[in-house]
Amino acid sequence: MTAPTATTPAWRAEHASSRTVAGSAVAARARAYTDPYVAGVGIGIVLLLAFVVMGRGLGASGAFSSAVAAAVRAGAATHAQGSPAYAPYLADGGLLRDWLVFEMAGVIVGGFLSALLGHRLRAAVERGPRAGLGLRLGAGYWGGVLMGVGARLARGCTSGQALTGGALLSAGSWLFIACAFSAGYLAAPLARRLWT
Fold first, then answer.
1. What are the C-alpha distances in Å from 196 to residues 54, 128, 189?
2. What is the pLDDT of residues 34-53, one digit of tens each?
3. Is 131 helix (H, G, I), strand (E, B) or coil?
4. HSE on the CB side for 79, CA within 13 Å?
5. How far apart are CA 14 and CA 17, in angstroms?
6. Rounded to the nearest 10 degrees, what angle do helices 61-75 and 99-117 cross at?
7. What is the pLDDT of residues 107-123, one digit of tens each?
């Protein structure tokens, strides 16, 4: 008798049962995710409020740029102040005067509270049955590196370019949206194999 493989029903049942046992307490209480259309309307309202209250749109990569600039200034102040890459993030007073830094802190706290209230708070690495732990962590790391480099080249991340730039009807942002969705659809068949 051969051992069950990822393509057999026996393997799938065994794998599903082992994951269910490990996360049964959390899974039994977990609430359904919010409808994506309702969440989309919510993001639109938050974006509108950001413009009205703060006078700026949403973003994420700028917060990380501000943090890096503050770290470089702490170690090499003269270099940071004279660098065209870091100086713009230090001009308005630095890290604690950057709206995006506080926005990202709110995202982290909000994500934690959402997981807590939705009964999904647990220590785990989400991955499909065909992806080992090393592959999943490596893909997450290198995917994050590529996203960071892409955000610098595009002069903004998906939240800054697509949400804020798209809301302002920026032609470059709409081109970015089209390219991001196209790349996602092209990459989906490759990534789906690891999750099914």
1. 43, 6, 11
2. 888 999 999 999 999 989 98
3. coil
4. 9
5. 5
6. 120
7. 999 999 988 988 888 88
For the record, the structure tokens of 142 come out as 């290198």
Structural tokens at position 138: 């490596």
Enter the pTM of the model. Answer: 0.68
| Dist CA 100 CA 103 (whole Å) | 5
Buried b or exposed e, range 180-193, using 16+ CB within 10 angstroms: eeeeeeeeeeeeee
Choose among 110, 195, 103, 82: nearest CA to 157.
103
Q: Distance of CA 69 to CAs 5, 25, 40, 175, Å? A: 49, 43, 32, 29
Determine the length of the chain. Answer: 196
Residue type for 156, please? Answer: G
Note whether 80 and 90 are within 8 A (CB).
yes
* Residue 112 phi, psi (nearest 5): -65, -45
Q: Alpha-carbon distance 159 to 59, whole Å?
A: 5
Q: Is the pLDDT assigned to residue 20 strictly greater than 80?
A: no
Please list the alpha-helical segments (H only) found in 76-170: 77-82, 87-90, 99-117, 133-153, 166-167
- Taking only the tens place, the pLDDT of each residue in 82-112 is 888 888 888 777 677 778 888 889 999 999 9
